[in-house]
């Protein structure tokens, strides 16, 4: 199993190109199931989750052609996928494929909308909470599907097709909004989604669906209106840049000190995180190419932050911020409001000498001047990268084990960081 070895203490200086967003690429690939014509996606990141979803779509009979092995006009330019779901030969998504990744469950929406049936295993994904799918089921039921759970599978049937409906989510859910949106595009009549998630990845998917002939209004706001159409057609779409990857590298620079240009990052996608970094003492500036992050000389200041749905501070940056606050000059508080079990990095950060105590959903971090490198084990995707950030700043050697979590969501992380002066390498046993 691969590991990452880091010798900490170097400042980061240079340029990091931001890849396409995992959390947009996955639903965009799934949206290809809605049409028999080809959907072309540019800037798709090369990630384990993308490869796994290719296998899942392949199992439904989808043909995927990948172009883009040649170097593009900028470093780390993503691949271009030509996805053709002309013939869906199987409407079952089996446990062996779906259990590894949360987003793969979302195939249920286009399958039931277009094929009027689907049988999809309950999902897996990062172990950061119970992560139920009751609201996704509620949304599909409102649209007229009949759903049962049998042997770990959700079986959905809509013999006469889906019908437009009013769907009001009792809490903001990204997965629920993706599923409702995709399913409603092919429903008869109008669907109104209230308390919808406003995450940029939802807007990106809605933009792509509209290019495919859908009629979606209000994506990016809490009220989305979808006028169903009979058919969708092919289109070409570029995956938006990964705001979580950009925020992660910004926190790494704030932690180690230095000066890094995040090329291709879009500040409006992570304003709350940039505000927190500024409070913490990082210098953030926006330019034509993206975002520049620096910290030279000044110490790291403590902050008080709660995670929240977009445009609030993202839960997917909570672990990385906690690593940064481990070296702040004072006491910080971070409250996790989205997932009930997303503090599994706390005990691993303690191995570096971080002083963190937990009280319910709030972590109090008493900053320390120096962390020391240690062997650590990543437990989920963003937790893993928080350990990398701590290792970059810590004195001495850090070995991050179980990095397959990292490979789900960070494209060529060790290459990007070593190009900025970090001493970091992958060890393949
Ligand atoms: C692949 C992808 O895009 N993953 C992201 C997505 O996850 P995901 O889409 O799973 O997250 P949701 O927004 O759906 O979950 C938010 C909250 O709603 C709860 N909930 C959700 C669905 C449901 O049926 N019932 C229910 O109670 C969840 O347990 C959680 O407490 O959004 C999260 C919140 O921004 C991010 O951390 C994940 O990186
Ligand atoms: C939690 C994440 O992914 P998933 O929803 O696929 O588990 C994530 O991207 O941080």
UniProtKB/TrEMBL annotation:
<keyword id="KW-0133">Cell shape</keyword>
<feature type="active site" description="Proton donor">
    <location>
        <position position="126"/>
    </location>
</feature>
<dbReference type="InterPro" id="IPR013792">
    <property type="entry name" value="RNA3'P_cycl/enolpyr_Trfase_a/b"/>
</dbReference>
<protein>
    <recommendedName>
        <fullName>UDP-N-acetylglucosamine 1-carboxyvinyltransferase</fullName>
        <ecNumber>2.5.1.7</ecNumber>
    </recommendedName>
</protein>
<dbReference type="GO" id="GO:0009252">
    <property type="term" value="P:peptidoglycan biosynthetic process"/>
</dbReference>
<dbReference type="GO" id="GO:0008360">
    <property type="term" value="P:regulation of cell shape"/>
</dbReference>
<dbReference type="Pfam" id="PF00275">
    <property type="entry name" value="EPSP_synthase"/>
</dbReference>
<dbReference type="InterPro" id="IPR001986">
    <property type="entry name" value="Enolpyruvate_Tfrase_dom"/>
</dbReference>
<feature type="binding site">
    <location>
        <position position="338"/>
    </location>
    <ligand>
        <name>UDP-N-acetyl-alpha-D-glucosamine</name>
    </ligand>
</feature>
<feature type="binding site">
    <location>
        <begin position="131"/>
        <end position="135"/>
    </location>
    <ligand>
        <name>UDP-N-acetyl-alpha-D-glucosamine</name>
    </ligand>
</feature>
<feature type="binding site">
    <location>
        <position position="316"/>
    </location>
    <ligand>
        <name>UDP-N-acetyl-alpha-D-glucosamine</name>
    </ligand>
</feature>
<keyword id="KW-0131">Cell cycle</keyword>
<keyword id="KW-0670">Pyruvate</keyword>
<keyword id="KW-0808">Transferase</keyword>
<dbReference type="GO" id="GO:0005737">
    <property type="term" value="C:cytoplasm"/>
</dbReference>
<dbReference type="GO" id="GO:0071555">
    <property type="term" value="P:cell wall organization"/>
</dbReference>
<feature type="modified residue" description="2-(S-cysteinyl)pyruvic acid O-phosphothioketal">
    <location>
        <position position="126"/>
    </location>
</feature>
<keyword id="KW-0132">Cell division</keyword>
<feature type="domain" description="Enolpyruvate transferase">
    <location>
        <begin position="8"/>
        <end position="417"/>
    </location>
</feature>
<dbReference type="InterPro" id="IPR005750">
    <property type="entry name" value="UDP_GlcNAc_COvinyl_MurA"/>
</dbReference>
<keyword id="KW-0961">Cell wall biogenesis/degradation</keyword>
<dbReference type="GO" id="GO:0051301">
    <property type="term" value="P:cell division"/>
</dbReference>
<keyword id="KW-0573">Peptidoglycan synthesis</keyword>
<comment type="similarity">
    <text>Belongs to the EPSP synthase family. MurA subfamily.</text>
</comment>
<feature type="binding site">
    <location>
        <begin position="22"/>
        <end position="23"/>
    </location>
    <ligand>
        <name>phosphoenolpyruvate</name>
    </ligand>
</feature>
<keyword id="KW-0963">Cytoplasm</keyword>
<dbReference type="InterPro" id="IPR050068">
    <property type="entry name" value="MurA_subfamily"/>
</dbReference>
<dbReference type="GO" id="GO:0008760">
    <property type="term" value="F:UDP-N-acetylglucosamine 1-carboxyvinyltransferase activity"/>
</dbReference>
<feature type="binding site">
    <location>
        <position position="102"/>
    </location>
    <ligand>
        <name>UDP-N-acetyl-alpha-D-glucosamine</name>
    </ligand>
</feature>
<dbReference type="InterPro" id="IPR036968">
    <property type="entry name" value="Enolpyruvate_Tfrase_sf"/>
</dbReference>
<comment type="pathway">
    <text>Cell wall biogenesis; peptidoglycan biosynthesis.</text>
</comment>
<dbReference type="GO" id="GO:0019277">
    <property type="term" value="P:UDP-N-acetylgalactosamine biosynthetic process"/>
</dbReference>
<comment type="function">
    <text>Cell wall formation. Adds enolpyruvyl to UDP-N-acetylglucosamine.</text>
</comment>
């Amino acid at each position: 199993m691969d590991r990452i070895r880091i010798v900490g203490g170097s400042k980061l200086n240079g340029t990091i190109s931001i890849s396409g967003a995992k959390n947009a690429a996955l639903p965009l690939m799934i949206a290809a199931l809605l049409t028999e014509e080809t959907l072309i996606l540019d800037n798709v990141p090369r990630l384990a989750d993308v490869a796994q979803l290719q296998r899942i779509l392949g199992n439904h009979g989808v043909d995927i052609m990948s172009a883009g092995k040649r170097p593009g006009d900028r470093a780390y330019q993503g691949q271009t996928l030509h996805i053709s779901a002309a013939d869906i030969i199987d409407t079952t998504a089996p446990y062996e494929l779906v259990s590894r990744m949360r987003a793969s469950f979302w195939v249920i929406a286009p399958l039931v909308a277009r094929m009027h049936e689907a049988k999809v295993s309950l999902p897996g994904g990062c172990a950061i909470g119970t992560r139920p799918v009751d609201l996704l089921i509620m949304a599909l039921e409102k649209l007229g599907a009949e759903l049962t759970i049998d042997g770990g599978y959700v079986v959905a049937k809509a013999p006469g097709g889906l019908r437009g409906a009013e769907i009001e989510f009792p809490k903001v859910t990204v997965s629920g909004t993706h599923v409702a949106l995709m399913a409603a595009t092919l429903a008869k009549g109008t669907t109104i989604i209230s308390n919808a998630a406003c995450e940029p990845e939802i807007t990106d998917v809605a933009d792509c669906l509209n290019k495919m002939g859908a009629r979606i209004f209000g994506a990016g706001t809490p009220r989305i209106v979808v006028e169903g159409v009979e058919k969708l057609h092919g289109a070409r779409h570029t995956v938006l840049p990964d705001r979580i990857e950009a925020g992660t590298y910004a926190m790494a620079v704030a932690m180690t000190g230095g000066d890094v240009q995040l090329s291709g990052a879009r500040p409006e996608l992570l304003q709350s995180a940039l505000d927190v970094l500024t409070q913490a003492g990082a210098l953030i500036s926006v330019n034509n190419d993206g975002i520049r992050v620096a910290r030279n000389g000044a110490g790291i200041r403590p902050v008080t932050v709660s995670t929240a749905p977009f445009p609030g501070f993202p839960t997917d940056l909570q672990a990385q911020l906690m690593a940064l606050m481990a070296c702040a000059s004072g006491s910080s508080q971070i409250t996790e409001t989205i997932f009930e079990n997303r503090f599994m990095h706390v005990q691993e950060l303690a191995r570096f000498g971080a002083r963190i105590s937990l009280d319910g959903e709030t972590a109090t971090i008493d900053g320390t001047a120096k962390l020391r490198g240690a062997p650590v084990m990543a437990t989920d995707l963003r937790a893993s990268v928080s350990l990398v950030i701590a290792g970059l700043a810590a004195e001495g050697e850090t070995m991050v084990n179980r990095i397959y979590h990292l490979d789900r969501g960070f494209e060529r992380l060790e290459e990007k960081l070593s190009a900025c002066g970090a001493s970091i390498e992958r060890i393949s046993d």
